[in-house]
Automatic annotation (TrEMBL):
This is Guanylate kinase. PROSITE patterns: GUANYLATE_KINASE_1, GUANYLATE_KINASE_2. It is found in: Cytoplasm. GO terms for cellular component: cytosol. The gene is gmk.
């Protein structure tokens, strides 16, 4: 699990960047921005039994599958983690993740707190977790309504779930209040940059330093 980026002299382990938030706080938006700016970051594409939203593309945003297919994947052990969220099943396929890590890539997960805890249990040293909070509840409601892709019943259900979700903020390494994207996004990038530079992730350091010392 090592990566040598074009501008880096030292190779390093990939990391698993986990983003969670109550629905509507902005993690899909932040995920999209991050992927535009960080082309080496692979996105873990989840499977879900939820109906596709009009703006979503199968295989890009999610792989939309039937409940029996989900249960078969889960029971075969093909999911790294899975959870029932807002009445639908969601899971992160293991195969794509293993392939990406083997290629030395960082991987981004947009998953709920139940999934975040499972990934952390399985790969504690590689996980960097970030929780996104909305600036206020009226703004959260406003964002869910403005997105205009869910029915009023679905929006009400998601708002009701926000209480339990927001309460999980202590389980994460970092917490961002997403008031203004122009502030939140650079902060998220800064987390990624700093975490990539953690000494223990820079697995090529012993060889690099050895080379430096040899030439002294
Ligand atoms: P989530 O993935 O957490 O459910 P989204 O990223 O889909 O949330 O964001 C919900 C809505 O709020 C979208 O319409 C998005 O454009 C908007 N949004 C996200 N972040 C902000 C922000 N900082 N300020 C204003 N609107 C935002
Ligand atoms: P949405 O339906 O709005 O796309 O996502 C609803 C919730 O499910 C969000 O909190 C999202 O992070 C979470 N989610 C999406 N994919 C997965 C997954 O593979 N596993 C888990 N545990 N949660 C997921």
């Amino acid at each position: 699990m090592t990566a040598q980026l074009a501008n880096d002299l030292v190779s390093r382990r990939g990391l698993l960047l986990v983003l969670s938030s109550p629905s509507g706080a902005g993690k899909t938006t932040l995920t999209r921005l991050l992927r535009d700016k960080e082309p080496t970051l692979a996105l873990s594409i989840s499977v879900t039994t939820r109906p596709r939203r009009p703006s979503e593309v199968d295989g890009v945003h999610y792989r939309f599958i039937a409940v029996d297919e989900f249960i078969a994947l889960r029971d075969r052990g093909d999911l790294l983690e899975w959870a029932e969220v807002h009445g639908n099943f969601y899971g992160s396929p293991r195969r794509e993740i293993d392939q990406a890590l083997a290629g030395g890539q960082d991987i981004l997960f947009d998953i709920d707190y139940q999934g975040a805890m499972q990934v952390r249990e399985k790969a504690a040293a590689d996980v960097v977790s970030v929780f996104i909070l909305p600036p206020s509840i009226p703004e959260l409601k406003h964002r869910l309504e403005r997105r205009a892709e869910d029915s009023p019943e679905v929006i009400a259900r998601r708002l009701a779930a926000a209480k339990v979700e927001i309460d999980r903020w202590r389980d994460y390494d970092y917490v961002l209040v997403n008031d203004d994207l122009n502030r939140t996004f650079p902060r998220l990038q800064a987390i990624l940059v700093a975490e990539r530079l953690k000494r223990e992730r820079q697995t090529g350091l012993p060889d690099f330093v050895h080379g430096l010392l040899k030439d002294l």
